[in-house]
Amino acid sequence: MRVGIDLGTTYCAIAYIDPKNGQAKVIKNSEGKPITPSVLYFGPDGSVLHGEEAKAYVEEGSERTANYFKYHMGDEDYCIFQNGREYTAVDLSAELLKGIVREAEEVSGENIRQAVITVPAYFSHFQRQATMKAGQQAGLEVLSIISEPTAAVFAYGIHGKGTDQTVLVYDLGGGTFDVTIARITEDEIEVLGTDGDHQLGGKDWDDALSNYLADQFLEEFDIDISADVEMNIMMQAIAENTKKQLSEKRSHKVTINYQGQKGVYEVTEGKFEEITAYNLNRTKDIIQKLLGELGMGWGEIDGVLLVGGSTRMKQVKDYLAGMCGRPPMQGVNVDEAVALGAAIRANIDLDGKIAEEKAGSQLFLGAAARKPSFSIAGAKRIRDATAHSMGMIAVNKEGTAYVNSIMVRKNSPIPAKVTKPYELGISRSKENRLEVYMLQGEEEKLANPPNCLVLGKYVFTGIQSGGERTEKINVTFAYDANNIVQVSAVQERTGQGLSLHIEPVEEDMGWVLEPPKGRQQEMSVLLAVDLSGSMAGKRLKEAKKAATSFVDQFDMDFTRIGLVNFSDNAILYQPLTRDKQLLSQKIQGWEIDQGGLGYGNEAEPFALASSTLKGCSQDVRYVVVLTDGYWYEEEEAVLLAQKCHREGIEVIALGFGSANKDFLDQIASRKDFASFTELSKLETALTGIARMM
Ligand code: AMP
C-alpha cells in the first residue's frame, strides 16, 4: 500500500486511498486518533516508543525523550545521546517513521512499503535530502518529497471546491510556517510561489503565553518558575492547553501551583492576541513579501486554505478573513489535510494519472484499483515551484567582485533545469577539476559568514585531455521534482558524464569578499625570439611590432613576461617583469648578433626557459617561440622542449619565413600550440596567441 505521511514538528499523520471509493483517508493510530505526537521515548531496555505513549513521558519531565527534532533536519551537527548511542535528526525521524508505519500496518492490516513524505515548502535542499534519508532509513521507498501546502491543495480539491481559482495556503503548524499561492483549475494545481519561516510555529505562541504566565507569577509571589526545568515543561503544557481553549472561548482561567503558592490568572482572547501579536505579524510580513514577489495583491486571492493545527487560532482566521474579504475555506480537517493530499500524490504521477507499480503493470491498489472505472478523488496534474533560488559563486560581469550568480530563480516551476557551458583550461601537470560552489538563497551580494546556504563545493573530475588547450564542459543545474538540487556535467568533446563529489567548503569563506584578482591564476611568460641573421631587415621590424602588441595584450597584475633571445647562443635578455614599458623598450632594442649572439641557429631556448621558470611553478607557465628558419639541432631542441612539457611548461611555437612546421609541431606542447604565418600577418598571429593565453 502506498501512503502519504505528514511528518510534522509536533504531530504526524498517515493516510491512504480507500480502494472502495478512491477517497483519501487517514489511518487512525492504535488509540483511534488521526494524529500522533512526533515524540520518541527511549526505554532503559533499549526499546523505542513513539506517539502518545512517548508524549506521556515528556509530560512527566523524563530525559529519555526526544521531540521537536524536525527543527534540526539538515543540521549535521545536531545529535542527542540515548541508550549509549548517538541519534541525529535523521535517525530520530527514521525511528518516528518506523513507529507510525508499524502502527498503521497493524491497524490497517496492510503492508506499507512506499510513501510520499511531506515537508514545509520552505525546507532547503539539505532538509529535503535529510527527510528522504530518514524515510529510506525507516525501510520505505520514498516516492517523493512534496511540500505540505501543495499536498493540502490536493486535499481541498477532494471536495470539489477548488476549481479555477487562486488560493493562498496558510500553513501554520507546531514549528513551521509556510505560505503558498497556487492556481487551481479543473485538472491542474500550479504553485505560483511559496515562502515561509521554518522557525515559526504554534510553539512560539505557547512560549509567549508561558513567559507571560511566569511573569505574572513572578510579579505576584516574587518566585521565578522559569528557572525550574520541570516546571517549564509543565508550563509548556499549560500554555498549549490555554491556547487551545482560547480557540473555543473568549477567556480561560489558569491555575499555577508552585512552592506552596497558588496563582490564578484569567487569560482573555484580547490579552492572548496582544502578547502573541509579534508572531502573527511575522506571518503577515512573509505573506506581503510573497505577494510582492509575485506582483499580486490580496484582491487576486479567491480563497484561503488553512493547514496545520495552529490555524485554529481565532487571530489567524480573523486576520485572513479581513484580508481576503471572506472566511477561510471549510471542509477539510486542518490536521489531516497534508497527509490526505500526500496519499493522493503517492498514488498518482505528475500528470495526475493513477501511478502504476514499478515492477509490472499491476496497479497499486489491489483488485479494486485495477478496474478501469476507478479514479482517485482530488487527483490533478501538479506543477510545483522552487522555494529558493539556486546559484553559484561567480565573478561579476565587471570582473570586480564575487557574486551569487543565480541559475534557477525562486518560484520557478519544477522540475527546473539550466545548462551552462564552461571553457576549462587544461593543465598537463595537475589533475583537471572543475569546481563549482553551489548556493541556495536569494542574496546576489555575498557575505561572510554566508548569507546564503552553501550547499558545498561540487567537484567534477575525470576530464579527458585531447591535446587541446581548453575543454568545454556543459554543467547542468537542476531542481528535481522533490525540489532537491541535482548537478551534473558532460565533457562536450567526449560526450562523457564527469564524476562528481561534493567537498565541504572552507571554514573561512572570506575570499568571497576579496576582489577576484586574488584568486586569478598568475602567469609567467617567456617570449623567445630567433635573432639569427635571416631576421635582419623587414622581419626584425615586423617582429618588434608583433612582440610589442603581444605584450600589450596582458594584464600585468597577473602576468610577468621575460625575453629570451637565441641564435648561436641563448640569453635571458630580459628577466621576468611586470613592467610593460621596460619590455617594450627592450623589444625596440633588439639587434642581430646582439652581445655576441651570433648569426646561425645553433642554440635552442628551452634549457634556459626551464631554469628561468623553475622558481614559479605555482604559475601557469609559457614559452612562446618565434622563429623564421631551420634550427641546426632540431632533435636536441625537441628533447629539451619535451622536458619543458613534462615540467608543466606550455610551449607555443609560431613560425614564418622558412621555419619548419613539422618541427614546430614537435616542440609545441599541444597540436593547436604550433602555427605558421606570413610575415604580413605576424602581428595578428602573435596577438591572437596572447589572447588565447
Ligand atoms: P501541526 O504541526 O500541524 O500538527 O500543528 C500542531 C500545532 O497546532 C501545535 O502547536 C498545537 O498546539 C496547535 N494546535 C492544535 N490544536 C489547536 C487549537 N485548537 N488551537 C490552537 N492551536 C492548536
How would you concisely characterize the structure shown here?
The protein is an alpha+beta fold and 693 residues long. Strand 31 (620-627), helix 14 and strand 32 (649-655) form a beta-alpha-beta unit.
Task: Please tell me about this protein's structure.
By secondary structure, this protein is α+β, with helices and mostly antiparallel strands. Helix content is 29%, strand content 30%. The chain contains 16 helices and 33 strands. The strands form 8 sheets. Strands 1, 2, 3, 4, 10 and 11 form a 6-stranded mixed beta sheet that branches. Strand 12 (165-172) and strand 13 form a beta hairpin. The longest helix is centred in the middle third of the chain and has 25 residues, at 269-293. It is elongated. The structure holds adenosine monophosphate. Adenosine monophosphate (AMP) binds at residues 8-11, 173-174, 201-203, 240, 243-244, 247, 308-310, 312-313, 335.
Report the structural category: alpha+beta
Distance between the termini: 61 Å
Shape: elongated
| Major sheet summary line | 6 strands, mixed
Mean of pLDDT: 89
Name the hetero compounds present. Answer: adenosine monophosphate
Number-wise, the strands total 33
Beta-strand percent range: 25-35%
User: Helical element count?
Assistant: 16
Specify the oligomeric state: single chain
**Contiguous runs where pLDDT drops below 50 for at least 5 residues:** 358-373
Question: If you compute it from the alpha carbons, what radius of gyration comes out, rounded to the nearest whole angstrom?
Answer: 35 Å
Assign a percent range to the helix content. 25-40%
